[in-house]
């Protein structure tokens, strides 16, 4: 009589644990960067809904956004004011924040994540 044995070996289980551990570690390193990015997006959305935001100068927009970033736990070392730009074209103002985060992963391997988000600023007429 032969019985088929079903299951996983100890070595197979160890390999699965190593692979899952690798991806779990990568997720733990990346989640704070994405949480910060969602704070940037939320601050930009708040800025776009402010009345008169389209009439602000670039320095005023940067100052306002940097204040909003501090309430969203966005580190100004990760998102410097130079990452904030505004393009004025045909009466529309597009606010853009573009930056990169270099996250140490292991030994001499880093994870590089690029973030780029744009919103249109309305004017006083409610556009």
Annotation keywords:
127 residues; alpha+beta; 3-stranded antiparallel beta sheet; 2 helices; 27% strand
Structure description:
The structure is a single chain. The chain has 2 helices and 3 strands. A hairpin with a 2-residue loop joins strand 2 and strand 3. Helix 1 packs across helix 2. It starts with 9 loop residues before the first helix and ends in a 6-residue tail after the last strand. It has one domain. By secondary structure, it is α+β, with helices and mostly antiparallel strands. Helix content is 43%, strand content 27%. The mean pLDDT is 90. It has helices at 10-49, 58-71; strands at residues 84-89, 92-106, 109-121. It has a 3-stranded antiparallel sheet.
Number of strands: 3
Q: Tell me the major beta sheet.
A: 3 strands, antiparallel
- Strand order within the widest sheet? 1-2-3
Estimate the helix proportion, in percent.
40-55%
Please tally the helical runs, counting DSSP H or I stretches of 4 or more residues.
Answer: 2
Shape descriptor reads elongated
- Report mean pLDDT, rounded to a whole number: 90
Structural class: alpha+beta
Q: Could you say how many structural domains there are in total?
A: 1
Poorly predicted sequence stretches spanning 5 or more consecutive residues: none
Taking the alpha carbons of the first and last residues, their distance comes to: 80 Å
Compute the CA-based radius of gyration.
23 Å
Order of helices and strands: HHEEE
Portion in strands: 25-35%
